[in-house]
Amino acid sequence: MALNPAGPLAGLHTPRLEARHAALEKVFAEALMAAAWKDYVRKGLRDQEVVDLFDYNDFHWARADRFRDLKGAIMDGRYKPGNSIPTKLEKNLGVCRTVVTPTPEDCVVLQCIVESFLPKAIKKQPTRNAFFSRSHQNTVGKFTFGKDYIWFKQWRRFSKLRFQITSTHPWVVTTDIATFFDNISICSLISQGWRWM
After folding, report:
1. In total, how many domains does the chain have?
2. Of the four listed, 21, 33, 64, 102, which is most buried by Cβ atoms within 10 Å?
3. Cα–Cα separations (whole angstroms), residue 115 to 98, 109, 122
């Protein structure tokens, strides 16, 4: 898709803009959007705590048109995230966690961004102990207690690993970044020169 001469970027054809346009074209190809929807996004939306009454079929049935329109909006600089749905879920002792469900379009955009840099990120893992998972869920279809989680074997393995870490490193840090992305100030990132491309 070439730059739209009548779009908001008309007359601004600089080499840098052309390079960004090429990068966006590569990340947000319609085939990649379709793959993101099929492989991750549709199931992910179905697994949310608050489900869509129509199971996102309105988006699914018109997905080819949606992907084409979404790509056009991104390439022309017109794309902006839609209104997400915040939901409060009770944890324990009356404490609530806010879970935000984005629109299907925004989910596809985020998944395409993730897919674009994920191969490079995996190659740069500092160690094999940097565990990675696409989901917190068990990837195996069924959970069998004896096969998948023998607690005393897992605890022994965990204790051994913990001892190795604490005996060779003066500090061990554990983190929980569950709400990290909900609290990022995008304006601050942009003002500090952050770039994802």
Report:
1. 1
2. 33
3. 26, 10, 11
Q: How far apart are CA 37 and CA 142, in angstroms?
A: 24
Q: How many other C-beta atoms lie within 10 A of the C-beta of residue 67?
A: 21
pTM above 0.85, yes or no: no
Q: Is residue 145 part of a domain?
A: yes
Provide the residue range defining the domain that includes 64: 15-168
Please check whether residue 30 lies inside any domain of the structure: yes
Half-sphere exposure of 89 (CA within 13 A, CB side): 11
Residue 159 located in a structural domain = yes
